[in-house]
Write a structure and sequence with these properties.
Helices cover about 0% and strands about 35% of the residues. It is elongated. The chain is an all-beta fold. A hairpin with a 2-residue loop joins β29 and β30. The chain is built from no helices and 32 strands.
């Protein structure tokens, strides 16, 4: 059975200085709140570590510039003010894999997308467009849409799209953990994201976003029903457990005898230990040398030659290190082999040309057949063992003769 790894949901055990696979920089357990304005209050936990500050407080960047309803410390967003931003000070440092995990419940459609991620703004009374996709630009941020399950995940503003598609998470009232990763271990930083542990994709920066000054929550416009957004937790850590950051390639169709490959793209801090990979199909582990499997214990699955016995709809990979594991999305494989007739010419198509009054003489009978197999399929019709010239009319997966 396929398992999905869901990380950093609200819970008391997550709000101390460290957990088994991470070192916490900031955590805010909204379930402990009493319903007061979050502005100028400290998060549940804060550390002077890896770019965070132990004395940090939530900053309402609108400040006194405009009267507006606040984000409450119990996680209820009451603001109808466009482009509000609540921020914690943060400057990423080189050499880490950062994980921002936001657990958010939609109780109905708020009429606007909430946003969370990394931002260049940490200033009160800003008086401008504070959205992550506004004038100042956010980096590595997500704005899920309740109505259609579109996470709208971007590396910078809306100009660098990592993922944007409807139905990635369940639309309508639901609770999900939205995860944004920022890998600063190499010269070129990488932004990546997941929802409930399942990868959305990644982007490698050509110019690192060194202007990041904060991490926090905005909203994309004026919410018509802001209380429909309820935050449960907001947690920023340095992460040692692995993440599979891209969906597997699915819907693969290939000819029998060819090679099938798929790749699990993993983000993991080397301090987490050696990565181990195991590929599965139909919930069972694949074994090298069995059923034409060449490699099922690396990040690349290789099956060669692929036959109909390798045709499954639920290939997936689990990657593990000393601090945790991650499970990929599902991939399906269709293997086309020698042609197989799936629908032969029906006997009801048989026509007697000389019957009774002979009314069928001069008519144009039509016969058809459907088949599957490795493309391209070539159709030839015969009568009494002799090929009928020009009888190769194709219609999708079938051929007909008139």
């Amino acid at each position: 059975m396929k398992t999905t790894r869901t990380l950093l949901l609200a819970g008391m055990a997550l709000f101390c200085c460290s957990i088994a696979n991470a070192q916490i920089i900031y955590s805010n357990n909204f379930t402990l709140g009493t319903g007061v304005n979050i502005s100028n209050t400290p998060p549940t936990f804060a550390a002077t570590y890896a770019g965070g500050i132990s004395s940090a407080v939530w900053l309402d960047t609108v400040g006194s510039f405009a009267a507006h309803n606040p984000l409450l410390d119990n996680g209820v967003n009451t603001s109808t003010t466009p482009f509000s931003y609540w921020a914690l000070p943060f400057t990423p440092q080189a050499g880490h894999v950062y994980l921002l995990a936001v657990n958010l419940a939609f109780t109905n459609n708020p009429g606007v997308a909430p946003e969370f991620g990394f931002h260049v703004l940490y200033q009160t009374n800003y008086g401008g467009d504070e959205r992550f996709n506004g004038t100042l630009k956010g980096f590595d941020w997500m704005g899920p849409l309740e109505a259609n399950g579109n996470p709208q995940f971007f590396a910078s503003g809306t100009s660098i799209t990592i993922a944007s598609a409807n139905g990635i998470f369940a639309p309508g009232p639901s609770t999900n953990t939205y995860q944004m990763l920022l890998d600063t271990r190499s010269n070129a930083w990488v932004a990546a994201g997941c929802i409930n542990g399942l990868g959305l994709g990644s982007f490698t920066y050509t110019a690192n976003p060194t202007g990041i000054k904060s991490v926090g929550i905005t909203q994309n416009g004026a919410a018509s029903a802001p209380t429909c957004m309820h935050y449960n937790s907001f947690v920023l850590t340095t992460e040692l457990a692995p993440f599979i950051i891209k969906p597997l390639v699915t819907g693969t169709i290939l000819g029998g005898g060819s090679t099938y490959t798929n790749v699990a793209t993993v983000m993991a801090d080397t301090n987490g230990g050696t990565l181990s990979y195991q590929w599965y199909a139909n919930g069972l582990p694949l074994t090298n040398g069995v059923n034409n499997v060449i490699s099922a214990d690396t990040n690349i699955l290789v099956i060669s030659p692929a036959l109909t016995s390798n045709q499954f709809t639920n290939y997936y990979c689990i990657v593990t290190n000393n601090f945790g594991s991650a499970t990929s999305t599902l991939a399906s494989v269709t293997v086309l082999t020698n042609p197989v007739i799936t629908l032969p010419p029906a006997s009801s198509n048989a026509i007697t040309l000389f019957s009774g009054s002979g009314g069928n003489v001069g008519s144009s009978p039509t016969f058809s057949v459907s088949a599957v197999g490795a493309p391209p399929l070539d159709y030839r019709w015969y009568t009494n063992g002799v090929e009928v010239g020009g009888a190769t009319t194709l219609n999708a997966n079938s051929s007909s003769i008139s």
